[in-house]
Prior knowledge:
Layout: E1 6-10, H1 14-26, E2 30-34, H2 40-43, E3 50-54, H3 62-71, E4 77-82, H4 86-98, E5 102-108, H5 113-121, E6 131-132, E7 138-139, H6 143-151, E8 155-164, E9 170-181, E10 185-187, H7 189-198, H8 202-222, E11 228-232, H9 243-253, E12 261-266, H10 274-286, E13 290-296, H11 302-308, E14 313-316, H12 318-321, H13 328-343, E15 347-351, H14 356-365, E16 369-371, H15 384-390
Parallel strand pairs: 1-2, 1-3, 3-4, 4-5, 9-11, 11-12, 12-13, 13-14, 14-15, 15-16
Antiparallel strand pairs: 6-7, 8-9, 8-16, 9-10
Amino acid sequence: MAYRKRLLVLDDERDIAEFVRDVAIESGYDALASNSSAAFPSVYSSDIDVVVLDLMMPGTDGIEIIRFLAECGSNTSVILISGYNAGVLHSAQELASEHGLHVIGSLTKPIRYEELEQLLATVPALLPMRRLSDTGRLEKPGIDEFIAAIDNGEIVPYFQPQLDIASQTLIGVEALVRWEHPYRGLLPAGLILELAHEADLLVELSTCVLNQSLTQCRKWLEEGLKTLVSINMSADIFKDLGLPTMLEEQLQMHRLDPGQITLEVTESALMQELVKSLDTLTRLRMKGIALSIDDFGTGYSSLVQLHRIPFSEMKIDRSFVVNALTDEEALAIVKITIMLGHELGMKVIAEGIENRQTWDLLATLGCDAAQGYFIAKPMPGDALSAWAQSHRTLH
């Protein structure tokens, strides 16, 4: 029997709770609606895939529920809904993220069917991330299992196409790490990164994905497909002053042009040992390797980083892109980021394109490139050539 994701909606307005529940059921969920925030701890269970949470409720409010989920170590995804202004909703979303909760998105009342349906389609299932224990509960894979997976070649990159917005042609791919588990199925990046952090293996994980991506890039060239490859790197790897020389040797071994590779790094991660990182990053750019500042706008010193580090590309964080159609503040951030990137001579890529309307908006705003499920889901390397041949234009 196919696994059905589970949803719990908490809203003191019964009609809204029932509306969300019904949309979820139509979307293939097992769904439960609750009107009592005080009863939430007794209704919630760790196998619920997503909680849809109203912020404004009498008695126990949504912020207290967020705190409860954080304190019990919940892996449940969260969707926030509220009649508050966008600024308060943003603050609540940021708070949930800081608590370590996976916030899928937010909705303002009145909720629209299409927007809720699109968010529900992005919710990851908890089932593949855990195994059954003796108690019947699902639990996260252990560190030893993760280390063995690296050694056994189970940790692999999947590749998500990036299109030039003006021409709708393929210009690159982003390598996104996946775990091809022999009996749990395909496990997501979030779980892998969490385990790599716990095991202090982020550098080893980055190197693993880098080497496989270079090998795959060579295979694509032999198949007649030339494309750029963007690879997410741990900030720790940029502390290694030998990285530019090592990467140059790897590119020569695979007979690849340095211009085919872009290294992505999250802006806030570079604050540690910045002098060493600057040394390495500058030499990488001198060798012709592009650098991308990932998740732009989510760090603490974005403008300082842009001034210090020789980035060639800027990626707008998906949290702004997915809300740009309905949230004036998110739209303003997207507009300013595109303008700032172009003023600094950078290519600007938007991630999280989930529908045609968002694509059209970014085209109007002059964004250079885009990636997201509207274009294509991440795919194994050997599937990209066939996708590129069949891709013509977006419908």
